[in-house]
Amino acid sequence: MKYVLVTGGVVSGLGKGVTASSIGVVLKACGLRVTTIKIDPYLNTDAGTMSPFEHGEVFVLDDGGEVDLDLGNYERFLDIKLTRDNNITTGKIYQAVINKERRGDYLGKTVQVVPHITDEIQDWIERVAMNPVDGKEGPPDVCVIELGGTIGYKIFSPHNDSGILDAGDIESMPFIEALGQFSYRVGPGNFCLVHVSLVPVLNVVGEQKTKPTQHSVRGLRGLGLAPDVLACRSTEPLEEHVKVKLSQFCHVPISNIVNLHDVTNIWHIPLLLRDQKAHEAILKVLELQYAGKVPREPKLAEWTERATKFDKLKTPVNIAMVGKYTGLSDSYLSVLKALLHASVAMERKLVVDWVPSCDLEDSSARENPEAHKKAWKLLKGADGILVPGGFGDRGVQGKILAAKYARENNVPYLGICLGMQIAVIEFARSVMKLCGANSTEFDPAATSPCVIFMPEGSKTHMGATMRLGSRRTYFHVNGCKSARLYGNATSVDERHRHRYEVNPDMVPEFERAGLQFVGKDESGRRMEIIELPSHKFFIGAQFHPEFKSRPGKPSPLFLGLIAAASGQLEPLLQRSCSNLTKTHMNNGKVQIRKLYPTVPVKSPLNSLVNGYYPNGTGIHT
């Protein structure tokens, strides 16, 4: 097994996740099988209880793992399926060590950070790296490890001239020590360290400065890790003399210094790595060029075509994203990427209009009339409306108003998780005239509880107590839009993350009023997909289809939203039904799924996310 460790220095937000994913793409294009691990030094066991404002979205895996959003990048870039064990946190490591201590596994020894915590980290990496993630048998060839946080620099204290590490470095220290030991444990030729650093330009002098990277590498060496490859982030391509200076002072060959400058979309990043022969540098350090399995030149024709088409798209499609975390686009990262994948497939330039749901409410008209007016203007000017998942009652009334506007004005609507529940509540209030209709999440004493707490859930423990992971949905209405978008499948597997569900006792009443529940779970009592058959496109899904969307394989429901918003829904549905199909057996039940062609891309992507775009809309792939 070969290991590539990706670390970051100078500042956070440089794009280590995209860099690690892109390295994996290039190595996979060389014919190698790749897996990934993300290390998060925080004490939380997982990301499940963390605020989206603080840490971005919680990405959900097939096995129900609630993990860091970077694992979503890995899955999308590499088209693999990871498990919860591919996300290591300080909480998981300490929990594992404490459990061993309680069982007496350490035979009475004093349990310490070194060697017990550091050994557990190394054992965890070695164990998880051997698990296949690409659907094939046997272990992968290379494991790409991303170490979260920023390491390799110091901040200075007035009481200590030698400098002190910042809080982020303090919590990372056991992992840094463990990885230093790990490089010796696996031996030369099996470990390559790629350090992502910043080469800024001071506006006063207009010169690319190498000193921050020099200090970062010096600090990294002081911690026992020496970079084999430097990935330098910058706004413009590095000048040759800057590379020479970095090589001289950081002790890294010029051929191993890679420049990742700002690009129009992040699908260009694997191409930048390939063009600068980063794969050759990594393969040489890992001695893969001399191993029995000789890697080929990376084949990235599909990536090249996608990145080029993306830049050429012109015709816009405006989607109003109505949520309460609109101040941080990372809160809806997978939703944005799924929208982008679909817009590329439908040859439209994605424009996302962020609509804070609170600003749509009547109270906002009194308290902040300008924000209220702006929010409604964006909503009414959109080609389609999307209400993503969420928790809590803040902004719920605004989401209900958005669903009502979409339903009454025949505007394409996609509701995800809470967005589906919102649509059900709005239908009950407006169409069925049930004034007391609500979710027990927002009103435990609701007279018409349309959405209720799931009986298997926990009201005392928040972490990992929801309905999580991949679950099967069976279609119950022949010819419904959702089934046609999925290629007339009889069932689909999608990922879930919710505590509340549509009240099954009220379903017959809803259906008599015209709301169809076209998708249900295996019991037939848990509602998974809703549709309004008389509407152009009004669909709600209890699951999260965005988590399985891929650049070349967009999520069918997102594809439907973009198609409806751009006047292409009927041709898409006809194409879906006429495409070649493939069948396979799954637990004795035949599923029929369509093969969706890879189509062009587009979007006004200027985003700050991952540092790969100039300032702009905050949309990213």
Explain this structure.
This protein is an alpha/beta fold. The chain has 2 domains: 2-308, 3-Layer(aba) Sandwich (Rossmann fold); 313-579, Rossmann fold (3-Layer(aba) Sandwich), CATH 3.40.50. Helices cover 35% and strands 22% of the residues. The strands form 7 sheets. The protein has a 9-stranded mixed beta sheet, with helices on both faces. A 7-stranded parallel beta sheet has the order 5-2-6-1-9-12-13, with helices on both faces. The two termini are 31 Å apart.
Largest sheet: 9 strands, mixed
CATH topology of the largest domain: Rossmann fold
Major sheet strand order: 15-14-16-17-25-24-23-20-21
Principal-axes shape call: globular
Count of distinct strands: 27
Mean pLDDT: 87
- Give the uncertain stretches in residue-range form: 155-168, 580-621
Write the layout of secondary structure elements.
Elements lengths: L1 E7 L7 H14 L4 E7 L11 H4 L3 E2 L5 E2 L2 H9 L8 E3 H14 L9 H17 L12 E6 L7 E3 L2 E5 L2 H20 L4 E8 L2 E2 L4 E2 L2 H12 L6 E6 L5 H11 L6 E5 L7 H7 L2 H8 L15 H12 L3 E8 L9 H13 L3 E8 L5 H6 L1 H12 L3 E4 L8 H13 L4 E4 L1 H13 L6 E3 L8 E6 L13 E9 L5 H5 L5 E8 L1 E3 L4 H7 L2 E5 L6 E5 L6 E4 L14 H10 L3 H10 L2 E6 L2 E6 L27
Parallel strand pairs: 1-6, 1-9, 2-5, 2-6, 9-12, 12-13, 14-15, 14-16, 16-17, 17-25, 18-19
Antiparallel strand pairs: 3-4, 7-8, 10-11, 19-22, 20-21, 20-23, 23-24, 24-25, 26-27
Protein name: CTP synthase
Keywords: ATP-binding, Glutamine amidotransferase, Ligase, Nucleotide-binding, Pyrimidine biosynthesis
Pathway: Pyrimidine metabolism; CTP biosynthesis via de novo pathway; CTP from UDP: step 2/2
